[in-house]
Amino acid sequence: RKADREALQDMVERWAPPGWKGDDPCAWPGVTCGVAKVGVLMPADVGFVKSISVSNVCPAAEELGLECVLPPSIGTLDLTESLYLAGNGFVGWIPDEISGMASLKALYLNSNSFTGSIPPGLGALKKLEKLHLNGNFLTGAIPQELGKATALVQIDLQNNELEWTIPGQLGQLSHLTSLDLSDNKLVGYIPEELGQLSSLHRIDLHHNLLAGEIPPELFGRHMGALMKVDLSDNNFTGPIPYDVCHLERLVMLRLDDNDLDPPLVSCEAPHGHHSDVENRQHCREELRSFCVTAPPFGLHDEL
Fold first, then answer.
1. Beta strand pairing status for 44-53 and 31-38?
2. How far apart are CA 289 and CA 131, in angstroms?
3. Within the chain, how many helices (H) and strands (E) appear?
4. Per-residue confidence at 274, pLDDT binned at 50, 70, 90?
5. CA distance 284 to 303
6. Distance set, CA 264 to CA 216, 240, 259, 283, 298 (Å)
7. Type and span of the H or E element at 62
8. Cβ atoms within 10 A of the Cβ of 228, count?
9. Residues 165-192: pLDDT tens digits?
10. What is the model's pLDDT at position 208?
């Protein structure tokens, strides 16, 4: 398509990626093309850029005196499904025009030097499943509009400088399995709406400025898919919810470096990341003495 070709040419002029030469962009390294039916009355086969995957392009661009930024023209790639630009050294803001990538399923902009805020328009990407913006210098709030990107399965925003509170709208993401907001400057409470994420396997909020009590909803009976929970290094207070005893698939629980009331409980994964059965058994043993004290007494003796 002409629009795709022009967007790629814009990238060439801004980044000068090695190997991006010649008249056929589909032959360029890291560019994958496909064919789609376009049109209503008389659909026609149209070639388009299906995915882009490049890394470490900025050093070459900087040698040529180019500023390595993500161009607004990226938004014209409305049929592109995957954009993998991790580890390049991009600077500047993530352009708002990225919301025009309506077919995008995977967005990897991690391990760059992006600044500014997360574009709220990402919430308009109804097919987006994987959002990885970790390892940048992003600031401001997590946009509540992300709750509208209902196909999301993974959100990784860790290791940025994000502030303000966690938006309760994230609780609308019924397919979400992994949520990592660690190593930021988030404040306020954990919204109880996160307790609606019944598909969630992993939540990591460690090393923030979060406070208040841990909501029992986060460990509710319908959160049975949870395997890894890290809320360490915050300012949480109050008791640990006994609802944690319902999490039968738990392999890791980290609550240290808070101001929680005793009795305290935690469990690591001493058998490695690929030994869930052994780690699950270890975690049940670590939780046993805590759970048998849950009211009514003996309710969780099966642990």
1. antiparallel
2. 39
3. 3, 14
4. low
5. 6
6. 15, 7, 10, 14, 18
7. helix 58-63
8. 19
9. 999 999 999 999 999 999 999 999 999 9
10. 98
Q: Tokens 């944690």 sit at which residue?
A: 244
Distance CA 130, CA 125 (A): 11
Tokens coding 222: 């319908």
Compute φ and ψ for 69, nearest 5 degrees: -125, 165
Separation of alpha carbons 115 and 94, rounded Å? 8
Say how far apart CA 226 and CA 250 lie, in whole Å: 6
C-alpha pair distances (Å), 249 with each of 149, 227, 228, 288: 27, 5, 9, 14
pLDDT digits (tens, 9 = 90+) for 71-129: 999 999 999 999 999 999 999 999 999 999 999 999 999 999 999 999 999 999 999 99
Kindly report the pTM of this predicted structure. 0.92
- Return the bridge partners of 37, or none: 45
The answer to whether the beta carbons of residues 63 and 90 sit under 8 Å apart is no
**Measuring CA to CA, how many Å separate 43 from each of 3, 4, 79?**
18, 19, 15
User: What is d(CA 30, CA 248) in angstroms, rounded to the nearest whole number?
Assistant: 42
